[in-house]
């Protein structure tokens, strides 16, 4: 009887060993994005095309409007990873955080706003920035990256935003398009797809790009607390791999294909408008081709912040940027 029982136990163990292995449970990662914007097309593509799932990650995406709310959610543990402007990590450091927020994968590498006027350019020529002087300009929130990139550009063309313009900055981000459409301002600083929507409706016309004018900088990046990276390095590497797949796919795909992949995230926006907006961002190189934040981009970011009077002291590149995950992803993901 003992021999029979031993034989049965051996057969059970053998069957278990030879049977199908249970799939590893996906690791959940909670992302908080600062806004819902097609400027973040590589992120939506990476989710919709299944690249995060391929890496064994289960993504929970929420929108936490505003950099302050996004950073609060990250610091309090409400989210694991934030998709927000890199300047927010510098603000946290300036406040003396003992657990620094680390930028580990860049998503956009230029400003994403455009200068929209009530009238189109005469003859389709190049916009004369000097024509802004004396006008009423509906700008972005003070201290945010869009406003700082906007002011940096204006100063490049010898325009003092506070003295040469009637500058309006007290309108909430979500209400800026409505304010312009209702008659406030002669010029406005807008993201896509709102800029293209206004052109289609004849309410405004894109006359210049702040992204082109302000140059390359880590405008939006994935970041997390150093303590999270220390405990979850393998997860961060998988995350960087998935995003590199998304970035590769966006670079290789047409505006039509990208629109098809991300349109579910913008159910209320016409697909032709999404397509035009995606093409505009592709044409000016706004989507980063990899997650690496180079030092020149980091320094340009701080130049923009200094010009806006929002930088107390310059932040050390190596302290707040960790490229090891993005570099490995770029080498391994094809």
TrEMBL record:
Keywords: Signal. Residues 1-23 form the signal peptide. Coiled coil: none annotated. One of its GO terms (cellular component) is periplasmic space. It comes from the Bacteria. It is found in: Periplasm. Gene3D superfamilies: Periplasmic binding protein-like II. Belongs to the bacterial solute-binding protein SsuA/TauA family. This is ABC transporter substrate-binding protein. It comes from Paenibacillus piri. The lineage of its organism: Bacteria, Bacillati, Bacillota, Bacilli, Bacillales.
């Amino acid at each position: 009887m003992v021999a029979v029982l031993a034989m049965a136990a051996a057969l059970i163990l053998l069957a278990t060993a030879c049977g199908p292995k249970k799939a590893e449970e996906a690791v959940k990662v909670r992302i908080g994005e600062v806004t819902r914007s097609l400027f973040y097309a590589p992120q939506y593509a990476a989710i919709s095309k299944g690249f995060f799932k391929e890496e064994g990650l289960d993504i929970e995406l929420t929108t936490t409007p505003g950099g302050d709310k996004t950073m609060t959610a990250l610091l309090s543990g409400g989210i694991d990873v934030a998709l927000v402007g890199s300047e927010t990590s510098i603000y946290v450091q300036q406040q003396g955080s003992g657990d620094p927020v680390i930028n580990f994968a860049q998503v956009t590498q230029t400003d994403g706003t455009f200068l929209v006027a009530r009238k189109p350019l005469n003859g389709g020529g190049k916009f004369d920035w000097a024509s802004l002087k004396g006008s009423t300009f509906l700008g972005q929130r003070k201290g945010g990256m869009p406003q700082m990139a906007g002011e940096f550009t204006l100063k490049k063309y010898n325009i003092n935003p506070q003295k040469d313009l009637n500058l309006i900055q007290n309108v909430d981000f979500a209400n800026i398009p409505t304010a312009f459409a209702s008659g406030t301002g002669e010029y406005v600083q807008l993201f896509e797809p709102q800029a293209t929507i206004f052109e289609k409706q004849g309410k405004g016309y894109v006359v210049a790009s702040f992204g082109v004018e302000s140059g390359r900088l880590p405008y939006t990046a994935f970041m997390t607390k150093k303590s999270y990276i220390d405990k979850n390095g393998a997860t961060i590497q998988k995350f960087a791999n998935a995003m590199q797949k998304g970035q590769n796919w966006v670079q290789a795909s047409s505006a039509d294909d990208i629109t098809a992949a991300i349109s579910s995230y913008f159910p209320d926006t016409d697909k032709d408008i999404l397509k035009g907006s995606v093409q505009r961002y592709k044409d000016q190189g706004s989507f980063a081709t990899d997650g690496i934040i180079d030092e020149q981009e980091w320094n340009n970011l701080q130049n923009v912040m200094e010009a806006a009077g929002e930088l107390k002291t310059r932040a050390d590149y190596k302290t707040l940027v960790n490229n090891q995950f993005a570099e490995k992803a770029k080498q391994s993901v094809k």
